[in-house]
Amino acid sequence: MLTTLQKAIAIDAIRINDNRKVVIKLVRTWTEELPIAQYLTSPPMMSDTRNRSVALLDVIMLPDDDEHVFIVMPMLLRFDILPFRRVGEFAEAVHYFLQGLEFMHEHNIAHMDACLFNLMMDASKAIPKGFHFRNWWTHTGLDYKNFEFHERWEVSPVQYYYIDFGLSYQYPLGLKGMTESGSCGQDASVPEFGSDDPYDPFKVDIYQLGNVILNVVNKYEGLDLFLEIGRTMTSKIPEERPTASRALRQFERLLSSLKPPDLKRRIWRVDVPLWDRFRIKHLRSISRIPLMVE
């Protein structure tokens, strides 16, 4: 029988030997999540700079339970939580996520849930005082009025990662033409999920990430230049979507066309009033303005 701790699925903790904030997650041993996480974070895989998989810090075996283990990972922040302030900040995030998707697909791994809640950032440089696991807009979980953070632009490069391989598939290297069926993941708008026909799981990954790109772009003024790649990746016809490698090349061509002033250009969330924009613009690089939480 699972304890209350095990039923929590994921909790935060402090690693004793270095005081690092971590997340402990309950994982079922009969799924592919643990072996895929171990494979992706093995030394040979981690040597590739395109690997954007969250590090697996430890695996904790449970006494008298062969069906569950705890895995330990760094505590990360959802990538869109802190507001994007510059074009280059969003471009950096998308670039890393496309690299990570290309890397996984090269190793015949389909994430199957490359959606918003599984796209994370290392906020250690942007929020040097740290953030609370549940009440992220506070440092301690209590005082949101004194929350401080740096613009990503000032602490770039910021690192971005995929988490949660609970729905993922790893196929033998060299095997092609794999198909899956049924719906899964956070994004119910994937066109393939509306049919019982088998589908290409890698094209589902492309759609899911493309839809995240579009959703963020639509929340900001100044990110329209990323609409094309988002629309290409979310084509209703799977065959018309690019592979991860082609999407990455398309994105890198776009980046190469941008000059430093283009990347530094200020952007705003569409729901931030003009007066607040003026006020934020004239603050120091550390913002003390409470953020709108979704």
UniProtKB/TrEMBL annotation:
The lineage's top-level taxon is Eukaryota
In the record, what terms sit under GO molecular function?
A: ATP binding; protein kinase activity
**Residues in domain Protein kinase?**
1-294
Protein name as it appears in the record = Protein kinase domain-containing protein
